[in-house]
User: What shape does this take?
Amino acid sequence: MNNPTLPPLDPHGQQILNQYHKLLPLYTEMARIIPDRIRKLFDDAGIVVAALECRVKTESSLAGKLELKGNKYRDLYDLTDILGMRVITFYTDDVDKVASVLERLFEIDWENSVDKRKAHEIDSFGYLSLHYICRVTEEDAKALGHPDFSTVRFEVQMRSVLQHAWANMNHDTGYKSGVEVPKDYLRNLSRLAGMLELVDEQFSHIRTEINNYRRQVQALVASGRLEEVDLDGDTFRSFLELKPFDKLNRRIAAVNQAEIQEVSLMNYLSVFKGLGCKKLGDVVGIIKNYSDAAYQIACYQIGLTDLDIISSSLGPQDLCIAYVLKNGGGKAGLKFFFDLLNGPSHGGNEAMAEMLLEQAKDLPFMNQ
Assistant: This one.
């Protein structure tokens, strides 16, 4: 029985619509399974996307298309957008990475796929997406337990977040109102499109530059040229991979033949910066010049105990304490250190500073 809300179709169009009803369960099952397959491959490839959308064309949408140009299609298999997906990336250069994943997963109908990014019209920014017409391979379809998945094609569109946002806004502004938009408004829309395209390109460029910087930093750290490396989150993380406090920690652990429990030392980034370190070389200088004093402090702390497990944070902690004390920081300096390490709201920071100062006054390094 025909749906009275649909536009009237000729017999050929109605035949395609009947075919749609028959194949709708297939498309619905594909929409349930295939996006998860794509997401898994993205995860395996380390690709993070903003969104992966999937939809099956509705009956009314298909009927409207068939009313306008139903004679263009021999049957439903000629329509490649019954199942449609859209992958939205954060960066424009990630579109090609996404495309590479799809090329490995599906058979691509290159004749009907289109790269709209090659358009050069000034107002084309929001439509610069890459469109692939895909088919699940017979082998993969069988592996999924759905051999019929390989019998139909579907479309995957790929574009950046800014392109996607602009396409939606431009569509709402320029077309849905049903009113012809004045040329002045269209000119402004085109100018904005150009600005957004530049922003999109710059985001990708900045990410590339940051990645290059990180590689350069890792190379400097690995080569030992630490005096040239600024102290920041990325550089300190690379520095910690060299295990710079291990020698001191092993020396301390030997006092009680203790085991060393590894913990994250990233919280010492703010501590060393707070103590005035600007370069990784400054941290190395503290390790070199204050390890003996730090060892004396540790011996006093654990030497008369039966402690058989120590934290890997003990070495850097006592290094900082030694640095403060040998540079005349006194109680205020120790409290400042504990504020950096534990947060200024920690109620016991002042008490710990006072206790440490009292304990350390008779240690050999304090009298040198």
Q: What stands out?
A: Residues 17 and 63 are 7 Å apart (CA to CA). Strands lie at 49-56, 83-89, 106-108, 114-115, 130-136, 154-160, 259-261, 309-311.
